[in-house]
């Protein structure tokens, strides 16, 4: 078999549900040579990264670090550490990733209660209070930004509510972190996981997690060892705290990436970053509406960083996405699970939440819809976006 | 808190037990922009990577792919898939990583038998036959290149032996792959895991694994689900086979790295690569002996890529390693577990198995030993190495 040639990935603009384009400064950081994972210089890099991660998450939690694997590993890390076989847990399911939580929790032996809402909707406080009253679970898990539906779950008051029932609040912030407000301590979140390839504009490969002192206490009270050695937070904490006790070899280059992604985030300022995501979302949304498209999530609960819109009747989902990719190098996401073939998911995350990216996807999408015979007011989309940017 | 400055890792030559220096072409590949993890272009990159991985491992196993996490995750993946709670397993322990296997297996619920040898030694076929006869385990696990002792375990005849007893052979090749001969199919190895940051000269972050049809059959016959969702090979196989069914977001940039690391390995040729590791080891060894140092592993079982030598009496372990790092940017490994403070581990792995690296560490080590008051014949080490290279 002849060897494959030099790596030569095609030009892409990644506007799906993630990964999103990597910031050039992150790629630059990743080109730096390795230092050893126990080198004093690397320990300092770990400290800096953890410090910035806490700042970016608005938390003082000492136990804040990136799991050495992708976002789904962060989900599993949180669940297998908080849950012992037989522990009661509530999973709030309103999309694909809520279902995923339920599946991973079942494997961890949780006595699971699923609280469900139709895809695209969000939960309100009363529903959550009801289930807490009835079940009194050890853990309640909910997705902040549901990647499959584009729905934005309010979570600021959930921690306080959960604590009334002595329940730990676990939040999936995979698609939220770095795009929309997230304040772990003020919102009393006990455990959270995210990823590196969305709001952080790094490649996939790390999953930032954080555990509150309350969550850590629950972990320390476990009667059984965590099933997974790789994801055991009691071991990992000694690698990521002052001991720096050898556990596994940290993915050094990915830590370089995360450090740079966090620097970019904090240089910009968190509020400025959230505002930027909102502004580009407003421009995109005005334009998509001008194209006759509608959001699958309810008004007021639409994620700025992930715009899930219904595919117009008669339009060939795959043909449009193939044309976007082939003619313009643009990737947008198709639907997942219940929404397969029904929605497109347009991500504007981190580095990619920029006016030039918005104008590009609109111009390209207009052409693709026209090719499908959709009657549109030519140029109306770009004009609508420009009105938002103009004033 | 002021933000940390631009990433500026110090100059290093990584001659410990791993990570080893990343090949410049791998860093170049990692600087390429992302494509989506379900992009047709990425699926092709996955195919190419798997094809080369099979070639490099001398195997036809369809189920050959990199786990999206570090080498220790590969160990856990193999164990939690092959073992159901109550299954009999033998762990061959002759160093730190054999112990690690025992620990992970216990967490997976294995009915574990530990077969032990003193650190630095290896097992012979008779011992293995005895334990197989007595225990008749489902799985026997052994470390090919024991990173903690530098001992090289012969494994070519173990698969055949295990299969006489209907036992699956699991081999830890973390420090072996890419440095010493490894032929999965000819040696009838049923499952193996490795890492990216040693013989492959990539950053840490991936763990190549491979499962024989026999191992896959055992996995398919499981009565219980694998505890871990992230490491479940039945799910992962559909992501890495022709289905490309979404499981998690592959660490795209790390796959770029692995692809380039494998290209480098196959361009060079496996036999040429193994010969290169042997030649540089011979030069290093002749020189270390000229310096009066002795190997901790027995003659005939010393790994070319990881030279574990006893620290001479009266020499300050930490002072020497600190001077190597501070004055020359050279990292060598200290001892682990039973060998803490007793050995140095000098790695010559992948890209770093080069004459200029050998000459550098020898010249530096000579100076460090002299600073410790060790009487040495100045220049003798470099001269001994040069004699090996000269003819």
Structure description:
2 copies of one chain form a homodimer. The first copy, chain A, is 41% helix and 14% strand. The model of chain A has no long low-confidence stretch (mean pLDDT 96). Chain A folds into 2 domains: 24-267, Aspartate Aminotransferase, domain 2, CATH 3.40.640.10; 270-390, Aspartate Aminotransferase, domain 1, CATH 3.90.1150. The first copy, chain A, has a 7-stranded mixed beta sheet, sandwiched between helices. Chain A has a two-stranded parallel sheet with strand order 1-12. The termini of chain A are far apart. With 391 residues, chain A is of the alpha/beta class. The first copy, chain A, is globular, with a radius of gyration of 21 Å. Chains A and B meet through helix 1, helix 2, helix 3, helix 4 and helix 9 of A and helix 1, helix 2, helix 3, helix 4 and helix 9 of B.
Fraction of residues in β-strands of chain A: 5-15%
CATH architecture of the largest domain in chain A: 3-Layer(aba) Sandwich
Taking the alpha carbons of the first and last residues of chain A, their distance comes to 59 Å
Give the spatial strand order of the biggest sheet of chain A.
Answer: 2-10-9-8-5-3-4
Q: Tell me the quaternary state.
A: homodimer
* Main sheet record of chain A: 7 strands, mixed
Name some characteristics of this structure.
Aspartate Aminotransferase, domain 1, 2 domains, alpha/beta, Aspartate Aminotransferase, domain 2, 391 residues, 13 helices, two-stranded parallel sheet, homodimer
């Amino acid at each position: 078999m002849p060897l494959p040639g030099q790596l030569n990935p095609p030009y892409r603009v990644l506007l799906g549900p993630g990964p999103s384009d990597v910031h050039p400064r992150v790629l630059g950081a990743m080109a730096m040579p390795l230092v050893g994972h126990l080198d004093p210089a690397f320990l300092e890099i770990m400290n800096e990264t953890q410090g910035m991660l806490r700042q970016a998450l608005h938390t003082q939690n000492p136990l804040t670090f990136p799991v050495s694997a992708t976002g789904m590993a962060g989900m599993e890390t949180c669940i297998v550490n908080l849950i012992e076989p037989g522990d009661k847990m509530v999973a709030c399911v309103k999309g694909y990733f809520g279902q995923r939580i339920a599946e991973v929790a079942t494997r961890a032996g949780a006595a699971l209660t699923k609280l469900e809402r139709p895809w695209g909707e969000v939960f309100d406080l009363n529903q959550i209070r009801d289930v807490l009253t009835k079940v009194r679970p050890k853990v309640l898990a909910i997705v902040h930004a549901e990647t499959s539906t584009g729905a934005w779950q309010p979570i600021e008051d959930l921690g306080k509510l959960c604590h009334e029932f002595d329940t730990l609040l676990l939040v999936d912030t995979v698609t939220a972190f770095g795009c929309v407000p997230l304040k772990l301590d003020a919102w009393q979140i006990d455990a959270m996981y995210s990823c590196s390839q969305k709001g952080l504009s790094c490649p996939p490969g790390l999953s930032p997690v954080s555990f509150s002192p309350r969550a850590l206490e629950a972990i320390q009270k476990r009667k059984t060892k965590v099933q997974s050695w790789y994801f055991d937070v009691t071991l990992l904490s000694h690698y990521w705290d002052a001991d720096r006790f050898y556990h596994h070899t940290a993915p050094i280059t990915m830590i370089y990436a995360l450090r740079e992604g966090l620097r970019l985030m904090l240089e910009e300022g968190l509020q400025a970053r959230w505002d930027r995501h909102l502004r580009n979302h407003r421009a995109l949304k005005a334009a998509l509406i001008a194209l006759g498209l509608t959001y699958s999530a309810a008004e007021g609960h639409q994620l700025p960083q992930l715009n899930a819109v219904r595919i117009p009747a008669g339009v060939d989902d795959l043909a449009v996405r193939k044309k976007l990719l082939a003619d313009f190098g643009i990737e947008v996401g198709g639907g997942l699970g219940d929404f397969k073939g029904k929605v497109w998911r347009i991500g504007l995350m981190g580095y990619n939440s920029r006016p030039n990216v918005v104008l590009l996807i609109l111009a390209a999408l207009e052409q693709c819809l026209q090719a499908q015979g959709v009657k549109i007011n030519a140029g109306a989309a770009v004009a609508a976006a420009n009105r938002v940017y103009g004033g």
